């Protein structure tokens, strides 16, 4: 039931604060001795030297955020592969490696094939090459669930809209849980820092609610200008680069507008040639490590007459001057920001598609689970 919402996608966008709360409750039990509980056995990942993640689509974007967290918080080298690529060109076998499959449905053929291949090629090897597989899924009862011994359940609830929204947020939460659990067990993080991050995570549901309450109407108005737009560029850096990819994918999927996501620093290596007054640029510019860089990349876009839409928590004169349109989100530390910065991008894609009168929940050519190769 849509419960008064025009589309399932919008309902699911609005369910995200609740999903984050459910994940917080499941993964972070509020105890100093056991700060994170994912239900995974300690010997499962104590001696890890590397992680490889396979996924497709939006789940692949969540995996890219996951890579950032696993490397920056837990210090474990991590690579992310498309299921469809990995299955035909797998990474050479390495010892003490965890392979993670991320799939909300647990039924995506390419992701399952990649995991199945990994399981098979590691079996029968000496102990150090043993298959260590972890699934991150919204459907523990799925084929993925039957294939692997260890699962992180993402607690998103059933998602009907073909465009993944709340299950993406839930996958991000699973990666915060995993990265923090690993960091804690490997003593890669201080107790204070761990507490600080978990406290920050607990604030996010209210921050998402604030975006929904204060920005949805604004975005609904804003999209009047973009119904005829043919191309969009999304840029971000660091942990927000995958969010730029996700914003572009959402727009492509449901509004059929051509959109690309780039790490902002790459624009000058080619894509900037596309820019003119007809190509808006959405820049994710959160304070932190790369804020100044994103701002200077945005200035370069503005100099090519692109209309600039900023998703940022900075509300100073500089930001107001650079961005033609500014969508504010709460001022959280950079490492937590993807949970907030993706929300305006979901709303932007939704409202453009809805305004164009498109079938938001069942976009053309797409299926909710891609069970064929
Ligand atoms: O069920 P999965 O997470 O494995 O699905 C992977 C992709 O097919 C999926 O994320 C697709 O990209 C969505 N329609 C994105 O909105």
Oligomerization status of the protein chains: single chain
The tally of strands reads 10
Class from secondary-structure proportions: alpha/beta
Cofactors, ions and other ligands in the entry: 5-amino-5-deoxy-1-O-phosphono-D-mannitol
Helix content: 40-55%
Q: Give the N-terminus to C-terminus distance in angstroms.
A: 31 Å
The largest pleated sheet is described as: 5 strands, parallel
Order of helices and strands: HHHEHEHEHEHEHHEHEEHEHEH
List the strand order in the largest sheet.
2-1-3-4-5
Q: What is the global morphology? A: globular
Quick check: average pLDDT? 94
Q: Which regions contain 5 or more consecutive residues with pLDDT less than 50?
A: none
Subcellular location: Cytoplasm
Main location: cytoplasm
Function: Catalyzes the first step in hexosamine metabolism, converting fructose-6P into glucosamine-6P using glutamine as a nitrogen source.
Organism: Okeanomitos corallinicola TIOX110
Which SSEs are present, and which pair or pack?
Blueprint: H1 8-14, H2 16-27, H3 42-45, E1 50-55, H4 57-72, E2 78-82, H5 83-86, E3 97-102, H6 109-122, E4 133-137, H7 143-147, E5 150-153, H8 166-185, H9 191-222, E6 231-236, H10 241-255, E7 258-263, E8 281-284, H11 291-302, E9 308-312, H12 317-322, E10 325-328, H13 338-355
Parallel strand pairs: 1-2, 1-3, 3-4, 4-5, 6-7, 6-8, 8-9, 9-10
Helix pairs in contact: 2-8, 2-9, 4-8, 4-10, 9-13, 10-13
The structure holds 5-amino-5-deoxy-1-O-phosphono-D-mannitol (M6R).
5-amino-5-deoxy-1-O-phosphono-D-mannitol is lined by residues 56-59, 103-105, 108, 111, 162-164, 253, 366, 369-370.
């Amino acid at each position: 039931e849509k419960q008064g919402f025009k589309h399932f996608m919008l309902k699911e966008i609005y369910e995200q604060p609740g999903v984050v709360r459910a994940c917080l409750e499941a993964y972070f039990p509020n105890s100093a001795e056991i700060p994170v509980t994912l239900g995974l056995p300690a010997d499962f990942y104590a001696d890890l030297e590397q992680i490889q993640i396979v996924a497709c689509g939006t789940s692949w974007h969540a995996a890219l955020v996951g890579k950032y967290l696993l490397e920056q918080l837990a210090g474990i080298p991590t690579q992310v592969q498309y299921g469809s690529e990995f299955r035909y060109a797998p990474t050479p076998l390495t010892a003490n490696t965890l392979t993670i499959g991320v799939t909300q449905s647990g039924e995506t053929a390419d992701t399952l094939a990649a995991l199945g291949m990994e399981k098979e090629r590691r079996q029968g090897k000496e102990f150090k090459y043993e298959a260590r597989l972890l699934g991150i899924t919204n459907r523990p009862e799925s084929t993925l669930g039957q294939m692997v011994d260890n699962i992180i359940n993402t607690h998103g609830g059933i998602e009907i809209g073909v465009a993944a929204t709340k299950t993406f947020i839930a996958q991000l939460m699973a990666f915060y849980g995993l990265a923090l659990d690993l960091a804690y067990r490997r003593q890669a993080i201080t107790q204070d820092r761990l507490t600080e991050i978990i406290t920050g995570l607990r604030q996010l549901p209210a921050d998402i609610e604030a975006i929904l309450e204060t920005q949805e109407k604004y975005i609904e108005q804003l999209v009047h200008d973009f119904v005829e737009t043919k191309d969009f560029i999304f840029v971000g850096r660091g942990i927000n680069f995958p969010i730029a990819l996700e914003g572009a994918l959402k727009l492509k999927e449901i509004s059929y507008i051509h959109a690309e996501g780039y790490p902002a620093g790459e624009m000058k290596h080619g894509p900037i040639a596309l820019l003119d007054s007809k190509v808006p640029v959405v820049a994710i510019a959160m304070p932190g490590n790369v804020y100044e860089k994103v701002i200077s990349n945005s200035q370069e876009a503005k100099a090519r007459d692109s209309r600039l839409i900023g998703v940022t928590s900075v509300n100073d004169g500089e930001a107001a001057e650079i961005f033609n349109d500014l969508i504010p989100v709460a001022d959280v530390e950079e490492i937590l920001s993807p949970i907030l910065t993706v929300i305006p991008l979901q709303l932007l894609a939704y409202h453009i598609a809805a305004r164009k009168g498109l079938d938001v929940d069942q976009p053309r050519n797409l299926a909710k689970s891609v069970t064929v190769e």
